[in-house]
């Protein structure tokens, strides 16, 4: 029997909120994409003086994730159609997503019997009851007997915390114990049972549950945020019980899964200094908040690599996290994940607002500062981002994510000299014994030197990255393609790219590399096959469409080639590619006189081409 993953359950859960309003969002231009550098723009609500105008404007704002304007516009529309359930439902959703939990709860009470939103309203009203210490009421609201494992676990854990709040502590732990489900239930059950037992004063039981959580590496890999919380909870328990070495051991055990992790380092420093640690769950409200956080964080992680799923899951993930924040308003890791969700929606300004709320004393503060620096760059504030990230490097030169963040800012500016210098500094800080987790430093350093046309400096870094992480698909793809583009090491390069495709069979950019490698070596039919698949995966990418057009032309399918080049133009390429596309549409491709494209290019210059970046995206 095939096991269900957390992501596999997302469809039913996410749709319960996305489709809850029955609103036809297609009217609001589903293809529209918000400007990543823009904050929500002021909207003149007073200029909207009829229902259809307010309704369509509300849908557009809703689709764009502009919660504030959506709320205002739905309210205007409701002035014309007070009893329209669709408008009330979407207004409630946007209130929750905008962090206006109390206002959302007020509307949830009105919509309590609306079947389209009953799961949402039950959870919201249940959280509100827990917040008000109305535990019996919360228990009744949170009863769930449906088929979805994730919903059943979430409601079961919330019910357990309601029982705990009502003084039925043994019943609460029994409620958690009787939750049966897939293997990934275990880490959630062990974490919540652990912090619940700790709150009840039973450190021995708490220690047992939390140790089970942090030794569950498979569960921790699937739900990293709750795994990190489990590690911190165990370290906190041991330190506050006077057990310094076991506290340090808990952090070390956590790092076996996460690698070097800034919050763990902060906590290790606090333990070394003999400082007491504040438990993350010190009340029933914080326990219920932890349920919402743990499920929201796991869902967010499960869709991180899939843009389509991430977009469809954004509302449900944000609802869970906003529910957590309503009960635990100072939760640093909740604010960080909300910032990550905003980043995924191209809302950098909103993300920065969350990151700036993380208290400077929190172990999570450095993570929020790194993300803030990256978002400053996304908003076009490159100088500010550069200074911000340089300060973080100066503060802790051993945190290698700071170098990666600053390097990415330079890469966005195409300042490859500064990018290379940044990674040179990182390599110096690493010293003579790099670890597997530091492969990306060498990979990015290789990219910087390759873009500077210094292949002799670039190649050793790619090889070092592969030495540290032998099957890393991005590095296999980049190095393999570079060799083929230079018409050297052809067999080894092709083998590397094929292995990268095997490891990432749904990565359109890596498949593009394989197709382009076939093209460069004159295997045009194979190139057409792979590039067609790449276009299907990344249909709006100008470079991939351009590559597909070139392959079609060389394969004798010239009419289809011109169609793909036109598609590439529609995808708004950069100025250099746009000029090349227009020339191809006018003149086609030149005759190669029996040579492969790689051979023809090699004949033009005696030195290897050093800009094989196109087709090597990762």
Strand % is under 5%
Radius of gyration: 27 Å
Low-confidence parts lasting 5 or more residues at pLDDT below 50?
1-40, 606-618
Structural class call reads mainly alpha
Q: Determine the N-to-C terminus distance.
A: 34 Å
How does the overall form come out from the CA principal axes?
globular
**How many DSSP H or I helices?**
33
Main sheet attributes: strand count, strand direction, barrel closure: none
| Chain-averaged pLDDT | 89
What's this, in brief?
This protein has 618 residues and is mainly alpha-helical. It is 69% helix and 0% strand.
Describe this structure in words.
The protein has 618 residues and is an all-alpha fold. Helix 6 packs antiparallel against helix 7, helix 13 packs antiparallel against helix 14 and helix 28 runs parallel beside helix 30. The longest helix has 21 residues. It is globular, with a radius of gyration of 27 Å.
Question: Which helices and strands occur, and which strands form pairs?
Answer:
Elements: H1 10-18, H2 51-63, H3 67-80, H4 85-97, H5 101-110, H6 118-131, H7 135-141, H8 149-165, H9 169-177, H10 185-199, H11 203-214, H12 217-222, H13 224-240, H14 244-258, H15 262-272, H16 284-302, H17 307-327, H18 332-344, H19 348-356, H20 365-378, H21 382-395, H22 400-412, H23 416-430, H24 439-451, H25 455-468, H26 473-485, H27 490-503, H28 508-520, H29 524-537, H30 542-554, H31 558-570, H32 575-587, H33 597-604
Helix pairs in contact: 1-17, 2-3, 3-4, 4-5, 5-6, 6-7, 6-8, 7-8, 8-9, 8-10, 8-16, 9-10, 10-11, 10-13, 10-16, 11-13, 13-14, 14-15, 16-17, 17-18, 18-19, 18-20, 19-20, 20-21, 20-22, 21-22, 22-23, 22-24, 23-24, 24-25, 25-26, 26-27, 26-28, 27-28, 28-29, 28-30, 29-30, 30-31, 31-32
